[in-house]
Amino acid sequence: MKITEIAFFAYAVSNMQKARAFYEGVLGLKPNSEYDGSKSANWVEYDIGAGTLGVGCAPGMWDPSPKGASAALEVQDFDEALATVKAKNIPIVMGPHDFPSCRMVVITDPDGNRLTLHKRKK
Questions:
Q1: How many domains does the chain have?
Q2: What is the pLDDT along the chain (122 residues), one digit of tens a residue?
Q3: Which domain holds residue 36?
Q4: Quick count: other Cβ atoms within 10 Å of Cβ 77?
């Protein structure tokens, strides 16, 4: 078996309306597909570069986990992203950090799922 790429990364959420307000309203992501084409869809996908982030609501079968995996999202302007996080009072759980190779901050969505906002240095 040879794995060629990551097809998508997905988070479980408890409320699609709150999740979409965060992913679309705060992070500015645009949905590329939805389970049933409505704002109450149980699954929505966002293309980000060559990858896809999926968000799904399936209570009892797949529950949010704030200690689970974390997606790292590359941002164009780290200072702007950090200012947005602070202005919207998004919880910061780690950082911001300034490493030799990158800058990053770990935040949470409304269900406590961790997301890293990341900017590579040249």
A1: 1
A2: 776 677 788 899 999 899 999 999 999 999 998 876 455 568 899 999 888 899 988 877 788 887 777 888 999 999 999 999 999 999 999 999 999 888 999 999 999 998 999 999 88
A3: 9-58+65-120
A4: 10
